[in-house]
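Regression test attached.
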Amino acid sequence: MATDSLPAVTSDRPAEPVVQRRAFSWAWLGIVPFLLFALAFLIAPAYFLFVGSLQDLQGNWTLENYRNLSQPIVVNAYRNSLQVSLATALGGTILGFLMAYGVTVGRARRARSGLLSFSGVASNFAGVPLAFAFIATLGRIGLVTTFLKTIGLDIYGQGFSLYSFLGLSLTYMYFQFPLMILIIVPAIEGLRPEWREAAENLGASNRHYWRHIAFPVLLPSLLGAMILLFANAFGAQATAFALTGGTINLVTILIGAQIRGDVLRDPGLGYALAVGMIIIMSIAITAYTLLQRRSERWLKR
Amino acid sequence: MKRGSIWSWVWVAIGVIYFALPLIATFEFSLKAERGRYSLAAYRTVLSDPQFLRTFTFSVEIAILTIVFSLLLIVPTVYWVHLKLPNLRPLMEFVAFLPFVLPAVVLVFGLIRIYSRPPLALTNYAWSTNLLLIAAYMGLALPYMYRSVDTGMRAVDIRTLTEAAQSLGAGWPTIIGRVIFPNLRTALLSGTFLTFAIVIGEYTIASFLARPMFGPYLASLVRNKAYEPAALSIISFAITWIIMAAVQWVTQRTPGAGQVATGPR
């Protein structure tokens, strides 16, 4: 920068600034392979979907594809995906938190390490094998279905179906609440015993302590984890596809059908659908990151 | 210790039932291949199916290649950033966590849009499609691999170690082989196992790129057979269990290095 205005300085000490600048540019080169990889296989795919969503069949710029998102099949897919994700995120948060509470500060502390290792396995047991496990459990001839029939409860006769909203939610719960346990157990264990002692010395009951201290401190972690569960369900495709064979209308299933054979009869609309998904996931992950940072104010890990 | 109540056990019991019932049902189902008695016939059929062996071997090969390329890409990069470009860590983290906003089905959609037409028609040949598949899996595994390696390097303060080795006169081979690598073993192993878990049963990307992976094979069995997919689901569960046990085993001596949940499927 200063070389033009102060030539005298450069002639006095010629080597130093040059060396410094070159060292700086060499260091940059070290991360080029990584950035090229990200550019080619993460950023470019998202970018080209975005560009495609802004073009019509002739390649002219248009916003028509986003207007077409109001088609019933698309609105329906988004509604179903949001419902399943919200329901299982909420259910997973509540069940996961109660169990995490039980094994950390509750009576069931002996079950802690067992529960944690099962959660590690179950939260990773998703996709096709999970779908089949639920077919064997709650499908038409599943173990639980047959058992309930022998004691006089015909759940399929009552309108239950594994291949519906409820069935899919029950299946997703298998990896949702274990994920919650994995996230929230360290947070609960981050609550310092001094806080409880201080509260008790000031006359607080167990309920007061949870209501005014522990819960507010845990709230960002809980909300963040819930959002992560939401994103986890929202992005899932394999489990739903293997379970229902594609008959349930979710955004991920619809995108899959669009890749296979342009079911929307409009490539641009398919791209807009995918971009909508990226936007929702970005909002969720950003919110998660912010809440995570907020929770670290008290619960330093 | 009067806190909590019998409810703690009730919630844990609900969780245990939720966890165990599908496994029991699947296992029981997998034993019923022969009419009227329990047998391991379904397991025998599946394990001797050449299609199973072929897809499983292929998946293992792809998983190993994904792991090797990921390590080659990520370890030197993270090392370099810790050593020379610590200011760029937030940027690197941002890039490494990009896969979180790209669900597998969206990622493969974008990859197909770019790489199935000229000038970069990778999907025209099996070998180049395999490369695309590996690249996609490197993407899916990136956040987990990156976080493992980054946490590992932060935990042992890799910069000080390097400078100490240098000032004692060590050359680069000694620094990498005898100082850096032994200190990163835990991080590298946990990243490796998690990547293996992601790739081995992956369905979405494999099926859209039409590669003969284990995931699509299992899905085709679910559609066409009854007892064999039950046996394979039990086997998949056992594999997941073994991998997670391995992750736990390598990370137990390093608190904070454990991260066990992978993304949406």
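Expected vs. actual: identical. Confidence is low (pLDDT under 50) at residues 1-20 of chain A.
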